[in-house]
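Dear colleague,

Following up on yesterday's call, I've attached the two folding results inline so they're easy to grep. Please treat them as preliminary; we haven't cross-checked anything against experimental data yet. The first protein's sequence and structure tokens come first.
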Amino acid sequence: MTSSAWVGERVRLRAREPEDWEAFHAFDDDSDAVRSGWRLVPPTSVARAKKAAIEHAEEELDLDEFTLAIATKADDVLVGSINTHTIDRVHGTFSYGIAVGTPHQRKGYASEAIVLALRYMFFERRFQKAEAWVYGYNDASLALHHRLGFVEEGRRRRSHYANGRYHDEVLFGMTVEEYAERYA
């Protein structure tokens, strides 16, 4: 039996496919969840959602900066996505973002997806530190990062505007050594 670096106990990280448009489009209906991930934007049409899904599926593969779908291992139900960004090869750092659709939250999908993505970035791509920015009002994500063993490294005060108020952004970091001690 073969094993995949992209499969955990509950989730499988996979490429985004054109047929994923419907699930991603539905996730955008929860304005609070969208705000917690980045920023609220006007609704998009079905045509635009389909077009965006095709464009994502056809993007050139980048080994360090990518977006993957998070699907359940058991039945391949799309539950969210994880992406890497802000790649700094000189210093060996990267950031990531994660979004799990509201109906699929609090089931362990996000934590497992983060652990899988970090394992790849640390042990296959030779990065030495992962960073994540979390909005100060996103209690679930703050708790998730603490639970995963991330260190709270700083706070940018009043740097994010959402729902009529300014909010702090909290910076979390984890080094490859911290990851290996906990997950290797």
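Below is the second protein, in the same order (sequence, then structure):
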Amino acid sequence: MKVSDVLVKVCEPGRLQAAWQQVRVNAGAAGIDRMTVEEFAQREAHFLALIHDKLKSGSYRFQPARRVLIPKPGIFKKRKLGIPVVMDRVVGTSMHSVLEEIFDSEFTESNFGFRRGRSQHQAIRHLQRLAKEGRDWAVAVDLESFF
């Protein structure tokens, strides 16, 4: 599939609407523009049309994320967290759904990381089955830490 085909799918109005509904359910804090999910909801049709038009014209640009520090449980260190603006969350969710459709079928059954319908509990049960089959090794890779 060509990149242009992917972008056409990302800006489909129905997909953007579904992405917005997911962002709305997830809620979350406001980004650097201080627009809340509730404020976006009040002008939903306007903002979704704006996102669609900007994506279609190629003029959409992601905003910088608002940086906050959140405490790590059990220690005094804090973890950096970037909070995107609501519009970027909608676009990102739409992109995710398109890329998931393209690539998810290519992942192995042993891949549980950040996949719809997969959980850490399922991963543990999968490893337990493999251990019962006599397997001796399991490998987990954290790509962020790897590089």
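For the second protein, one point worth flagging: The two ends are 29 Å apart (CA to CA).

Best wishes,
A.L.
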